[in-house]
Amino acid sequence: MRILLAEDDAQLNKSLTYQLEKEGFIVDSCTDGDTALYYGSQNIYDIILLDRMMPHMEGTDVLTALRKDGILAPIILITALGTLSDKVTGLDLGADDYLVKPFAFEELLARIRCVTRRPHTLTAPDTLSFADITWDQTLNTLKGPKSSCTLAKREAALLEVFLRSKGQTLPRTTLLLKVWGPDSDVEDGNLDNYIYFLRRRLQIIGSRLNIKTVRGVGYSLQEN
């Protein structure tokens, strides 16, 4: 699961990023509203953690702009402003939840679990299946007809994108954004390498699925 963390307190940003990554999340972080809007507009995040008071652009303005652009990812506002009026305003603007500082990390995790369980969100259950494979995101285990295996971090992120878009042809740019993030300087050939690695994984577990190349466009996970 990929998270966007927009928090202007550098120490808190660093601490939350570290803790979230320890929990297995992929985290892109920023410290100002303009960057948060740019990242969020890429529509590649499963959840957005948005500080309300940030330089250049307030979190509520970022929230409004994202919802206007059709970004449906769950958004949790994180702020020191904890009055009833502040909460109501944030929720009315389209936030899914509101967390007041200071807070325990365990509470943040609970709220993330809560908003990602809601049926209107873009997230999926802990176990994803397609044809003859099942991937347990918690254990990072890919199971097939013959055997099972664990995946490297990038392999898991790439597989998740395919499993959430079953049978669809995904452009290379979409895959690069979703797996490496909007601010990465990854070389285009790295995607081909990880496609090769994932194809090998599918062969090893005996799956009839294959990642097919759609020339000039990208790739698609399909049954042979």
Note down, in words, how this protein is organized.
This protein is an alpha/beta fold and 224 residues long. It folds into 2 domains: 2-117, 3-Layer(aba) Sandwich (Rossmann fold); 127-223, Arc Repressor Mutant, subunit A (Orthogonal Bundle). It is built from 8 helices and 12 strands. The protein has helices at 10-22, 33-40, 59-68, 84-92, 105-117, 153-163, 172-180, 188-204; strands at residues 2-6, 26-30, 47-51, 75-79, 97-100, 127-130, 133-136, 141-143, 148-150, 169-171, 209-214, 218-223. Strands 2-1-3-4-5 form a 5-stranded parallel β-sheet, with helices on both faces. Strands 6-7-8-9 form a 4-stranded antiparallel β-sheet, with no helix packed on it. Strands 10-12-11 form a 3-stranded antiparallel β-sheet. A hairpin with a 4-residue loop joins β8 (141-143) and β9. The longest helix has 17 residues, at 188-204.
For this entry, give a set of tags.
single chain; 224 residues; alpha/beta; Rossmann fold; Arc Repressor Mutant, subunit A; 2 domains; five-stranded parallel sheet; four-stranded antiparallel sheet; elongated
Query: Proportion of β residues?
Result: 15-25%
Write down the Rg.
Answer: 18 Å
Whole-number tally of structural domains:
2
**Major β-sheet, in short?**
5 strands, parallel
The level-1 CATH class of the largest domain:
Alpha Beta
- How many beta-strand elements? 12
Note the overall shape.
elongated
Helix content: 40-55%
Low-confidence stretches: 120-124
Distance between the termini: 28 Å
